[in-house]
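can u do me a favor
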């Protein structure tokens, strides 16, 4: 007995409510276009952010690969310079062995062979280092190596000019030693400086690579955040326009 009067009263109140007209076809189409635009912008912004992120990863990886390649090339050149150092020391020692043991024909031939091989090895390693300096665009190091090659050729000529024959070794030993005494010292010191300079270039390259990496990372980070901010602003604007559409208020 109580439920029926309540139901009847509610039905009467609902019938007295003003009727709301349905949105027109034009309003529905406009709302549909707004929703399509919003969805399209969302997809485009996601694609843009994804592409920017992929480009950032590729750019950082490329920068790292370039720095790694330069580092490996420089370390190989430093090894060539050190090998030139060692070969030249062997060359000098072979000359001393020839003077000390050259009385015996076999020892003379062995020491002379070591001298020639060490001279060839020194020249070869210096040329390899010069090739690196030229390819790396380091003109200062390339000029230093060119000068060292000329000095090394001068030392080799001095050794050959002062070289006594085996049978005259005892008589000419002091003369030969006096003729080339100290001729190797400037070149040996120059080779030491060359390696030090190349190691300094290595340190400078590492610092430059670190600075470039930081700058590239900061730039790409700002670009990503800027694209995200622009995306959110545009999506918010479209969403605001869509929510204010009269078709949603009916």
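np, heres the sequence
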């Amino acid at each position: 007995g109580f439920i029926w009067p309540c139901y009847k009263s509610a039905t009467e109140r609902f019938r007295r409510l003003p009727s709301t007209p349905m949105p027109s076809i034009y309003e529905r189409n406009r709302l549909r276009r707004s929703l399509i635009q919003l969805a399209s912008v969302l997809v485009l912004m996601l694609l843009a952010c994804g592409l920017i992120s992929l480009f950032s990863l590729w750019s950082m990886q490329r920068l790292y690969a370039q720095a790694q390649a330069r580092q490996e090339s420089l370390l190989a050149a430093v090894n060539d310079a050190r090998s030139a150092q060692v070969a030249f020391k062997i060359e000098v020692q072979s000359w001393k062995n020839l003077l000390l043991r050259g009385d015996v024909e076999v020892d003379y031939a062995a020491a002379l062979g070591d001298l020639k091989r060490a001279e060839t090895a020194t020249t070869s390693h210096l040329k390899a280092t010069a090739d690196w300096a030229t390819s790396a665009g380091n003109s200062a190091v390339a000029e230093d190596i060119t000068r060292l090659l000329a000095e090394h050729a001068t030392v080799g000529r001095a050794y050959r000019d002062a070289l006594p024959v085996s049978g005259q070794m005892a008589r000419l030993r002091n003369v030969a030693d006096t003729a080339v005494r100290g001729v190797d010292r400037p070149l040996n010191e120059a080779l030491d400086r060359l390696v030090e300079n190349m190691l300094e270039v290595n340190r400078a390259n590492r610092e430059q690579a670190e600075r470039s990496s930081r700058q590239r990372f900061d730039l790409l980070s700002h670009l990503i955040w800027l694209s995200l901010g622009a995306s959110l602003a545009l999506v918010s604007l479209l969403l605001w326009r869509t929510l204010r559409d009269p078709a949603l208020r009916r």
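The mean pLDDT is 77. hope that helps!!
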